[in-house]
TrEMBL record:
Residues 115-140, 619-660 are annotated as: Disordered. InterPro entries: Peptidase_S8/S53_dom_sf, Peptidase_S8_Ser-AS, S53_propep, Sedolisin_dom, Tripeptidyl-peptidase_I. Pfam families: Pro-kuma_activ. This is subtilisin. The lineage of its organism: Eukaryota, Sar, Stramenopiles, Oomycota, Saprolegniomycetes.
Length: 660
């Protein structure tokens, strides 16, 4: 049955390590006087605290202290001190197969602000001339946005025909994480609601401060303010969770602690049914830093979906080239280097979440100015936006079956990059898209314009929150992992989405970046620039509300709404809708079975182990040892020889994803 989600205990039971694993590890650590050990069944993370001397003995290594170096490019760089192993780690051979990787001393690392605060941009693009799918010449709210004044909650509700939330279910909830030094203020949120929300009461917030946030008091940043203001603008009467999680990926100080955040959510008995994440990293960079860490995030996403949580992720703001760290050291005039190959982003490339791209508005004028219409097009800096929507194909994940038909149709089109430019067999993204240009955001007491897939993702997520309201009020479960359903809806009932057929992701973020000759173009149906399209909310919400009715002979009644398109077809027959939803449910059941299988799959080492202790090899050897020193990029940390061997200094050891 669709929506029969798992409890926390049921999901954790699927991923538990071997029964002998934890006792064996505890005995080994106890031999070295390490007793402060805690285990999370939600993520299989074993956290250990001990002195430098004890852990040096346990791992047969040496641990040195490093201090952060002042960064001239970051005025708010926070001094940090970290401990790193200077030699490879060694563990007992009898637990080697039970350990995925080890992260030594994964304390928070200073990080510069990554959210982009953009100046006012003109979103009026009169040079694009294609017949619009809907006329908006008499709509004052939309005309204001077209004139460059910036998008507001009223515009989004008008454009997507989203009703105001009037009957919020008290068990419903949504959430957003904020990484690095991102912060928001109650004052800004209050001013935003007073200015744009037409008398709506302030939302109910539940904040989780994972670590000290003293450095952010009284200061708001663009990313956190954007996420919170717009997810609550669309679903203001739903309880919203906010995780403030500083620190970084323990293997890369420039990237987010996604695994650590997922642990916070999964340990909740009742997590929010919808979460939106507005952060992305270069896929190849993340997997090079630690593939084991990146891969360990996937089963956590699977568990969230199995527990009824829908996860939405921004597809990135850097177009087809992506945001590789090496790429952004390259001269912007070096087009050959910038456009050499497609740069997929992570974790939006994971098949276990819903990737959300961004659109903007295009003005089209009829003969002699007789009529004015608007199109929704791929968001691009080439057309005046500060960002270009990310999209493409993963180099690390195979394409999931739920999107096979849609992507194959796209690959049959003629306007594709060369075969050596991208991985045509990879997981394709984004899955969907929504408006993401020039949002009016209240920031430190003033209104500013912010753009990005980090705008479209929380808005799309909040729309699903509204659908969950409908389902919960009808006694039905929340939607959970959505992708198989979304692709089948588009295939059999395309009016559920507004098809985006104009635009490309050839440009990068901001002005001055080269426009690549090869990129992904918007096409009819799914494409790697706009996904399945933007939501035709009246149609999509009714189909998602009544998904279970496919099990009945008559199928579901056709949504009694007018689609936002010139297509005059009455849509598929009642019989075809019955077929659609039956297949949808079967697909979701199969998807859940695959999720469970993937979670409990164990990779065994086949080599013979002759010694009692073994050095970590392969992915397990990715353990952070010491800060890298690159000629082109001065080391962030330098060694402090004075106190590196202090036996009283505590070290946190994290062993993640103990294999079953």
């Amino acid at each position: 049955m669709y929506g029969r989600h798992l409890t926390a205990d049921e999901a954790d039971a699927l991923t538990s390590p071997r029964k002998v694993a934890l006792p064996s590890i505890r005995r080994w650590l106890s031999q070295h006087d390490v007793e402060d050990v805690s285990f999370s069944p939600a993520t299989n993370r074993l956290k250990v605290r001990g002195s430098v001397r004890a852990l040096e003995a346990a791992f047969r290594t040496e641990i040195h202290a490093y201090d952060s170096v002042e960064r001239s490019d970051n005025a708010r760089w926070v001094h940090q001190r970290i401990l790193r192993a200077s030699q490879p780690l060694t563990i007992p051979s009898n637990i080697l197969d039970d350990v995925s990787y080890i992260s030594l001393n994964s304390h928070p690392i200073g990080r510069s602000l990554t959210a982009q605060r953009h100046g006012e941009q003109n979103s009026d693009m009169s040079n694009i001339g294609k017949k619009s799918k809907r006329s908006t010449s008499s709509n004052g709210v939309i005309d204001t946005v077209r004139a460059g004044a910036g998008a507001t909650p009223a515009f989004l509700r008008e454009w997507y025909r989203i009703p105001k939330q009037t009957n919020a279910n008290e068990t419903n909830a949504q959430g957003i994480p904020e990484f690095y030094d991102e912060a928001w203020t109650d004052k800004d949120l209050s001013m935003f609601f007073n200015t744009f929300m037409d008398g709506e009461a302030m939302p109910t917030l539940v904040t989780h401060h994972v670590a000290s946030r003293d450095d952010t008091k009284g200061r708001a940043t663009g990313e956190a303010s954007l996420d919170l203001q717009y997810i609550t603008a669309i679903a203001p009467r739903t309880t919203t969770y906010v995780w403030s999680q500083p620190g970084s990926n323990p293997f890369s100080e420039s990237d987010e602690p996604f695994v650590e955040w997922a642990e916070e959510v999964l340990t909740m008995k009742k997590p929010p049914f919808v979460v939106s994440l507005s952060y992305s990293d270069d896929e190849d960079h993340i997997f090079a830093a630690s593939e084991a860490y990146a891969r360990s995030f996937d089963p956590l996403l699977m568990k969230l979906g199995a527990r009824g949580v829908s996860v939405f992720m921004a597809s990135g703001d850097d177009g087809v080239a992506g945001q590789s760290p090496d790429l952004h050291k390259t001269d912007a005039h070096d087009k050959a280097a910038w456009c050499k190959e497609h740069g997929p982003q992570w974790p939006t490339s994971s098949p276990y979440l819903t990737s959300v791209g961004a659109t903007m508005l295009s003005k089209s004028t009829g003969p002699s100015g007789f009529f004015d219409t608007l199109d929704e097009v791929v968001c691009s800096s080439q057309l005046g936006s500060p960002i270009t929507s990310g999209g493409g194909f993963s180099n690390r994940y195979d394409r999931p079956k739920y999107q096979e038909a849609a992507v194959q149709s796209f690959l049959a089109t003629k306007n594709l990059p060369p075969s050596d430019f991208f991985n045509a067999s990879g997981r394709a993204y984004p899955d969907v898209t929504a408006f993401g240009n020039n949002y009016q955001v209240m920031l430190n007491g003033a209104t500013g314009l912010v753009s990005g897939t980090s705008a479209s993702s929380p808005v799309f997520a909040a729309m699903i929150t509204l659908v969950n309201d409908l389902r919960l009020n009808a006694g039905k479960p929340p939607l959970g992992f959505l992708n198989p359903t979304l692709y089948l809806l588009q295939q059999r009932y395309p009016l559920a989405f507004n098809d985006i057929t104009i635009g490309t992701n050839a440009a990068g973020m901001g002005s001055g970046k080269p426009v690549c000759d090869f990129a992904f173009h918007a096409e009819s149906g799914w494409d790697a620039a706009s996904g399945l399209g933007s939501p035709n909310f009246p149609v999509l919400s009714q189909l998602l509300l009544n998904v279970e009715d496919a099990l009945k002979d008559g199928g579901v009644p056709m949504p009694s709404v007018v689609a936002q398109t010139d297509n005059t077809s009455d849509g598929p027959s009642r019989a075809s809708m019955n077929s659609l939803l039956t297949v949808s449910i079967a697909s979701l059941v199969a998807s859940l079975v695959l999720v469970c299988g993937a979670i409990v799959y164990v990779k065994r080492h086949t080599r013979s182990i002759k010694s009692k202790y073994c050095e970590l090899e392969g992915d397990k050897a990715d353990t952070p040892k010491y800060p890298s020193h690159e000629k082109k990029d001065p080391a962030i940390f330098t060694i402090d020889h004075d106190d590196g061997d202090d036996e009283e200094v505590d070290v946190e050891l994290t062993e993640v994803k103990l294999d079953r």
